[in-house]
Amino acid sequence: MTKWPIRWELLLRYRMIEIVALWEGRLTTNHLIQSFGLGRQQASKDINSYLADIAPGNLVYDKHLKGYKPSDRFIPKLTKGHADEYLHILSRREDMIVTFDELDMGFEHTAMIRPVTRNITPTVLRPLVQAIREKKRVDICYTSLKDGENVERIISPHTLVCTPLRWHVRAYCEQAKGYRDFVLSRIHGIPDINDNATHGKQGDTLWNTEVDIILIPDLRFNEKQKAVIEKDYGMSNGTLSIATNASLVRYLLDAYNIDIHMQKIKPQGQQIIVGNMDELMLYLTY
């Protein structure tokens, strides 16, 4: 029987246990040690108390994996079982993906708009995470938006990428003979891990090309309006410089609602523009 209330710091660790076990398919004490700075004895105690007090039977120890894996009757008790919970741990580990609707801070008068959770399953994500860590090739079944057809692809993934509206994996595609972005929700079935990858992150030229995106207020604003925008975005001397890599330029511009095809809309609609668009066009493909 669950012992309530659970201390906040222990709840965070229990959530980590559930999320990692579900989405990676393997949980060890190292996950807790590295994430929370615990000793091995405390990490082991947390896993045992999770199984005893929160979710008996959710995890089973696998000698081959040298860790715990989800049992056939695994049911999330302290999380929602959404892929975004795991993916946001990767991108914002310091926050432990705790959201305001799950944390009672004594102030209810807030509202948050979040994107719809994309359709991503543990059976898709687990092999990709494993392939990235072990530098393996993967066989996937993928549906391209171009024609809507399911196609087989052999990819060598190197990075999971989070954008405000979706998650994708950056990988070398053997058919395209180049690096591409594969949307996680468009991968079907269970990716089949293959042999060692021959193309890694080091060969991805766009990924390894550092780029600065320079944002400035829309030039059609008057000086007072520009000053408002500069304050909104924390600009310095009328500019905001964002460091990224060339393969992420398009996604970052989308995040700022910047239409590269051009600003025919009123300046109030977009508010900011790119000051070095000529330089960035080299990395934008539509």
From TrEMBL:
Residues 10-91 form the DNA-binding transcriptional repressor CapW winged helix-turn-helix domain. PROSITE patterns: WYL. Residues 211-280 form the DNA-binding transcriptional repressor CapW C-terminal dimerisation domain. PANTHER family: PROTEIN PAFB, PTHR34580. Residues 124-189 form the WYL domain. This is Transcriptional regulator.
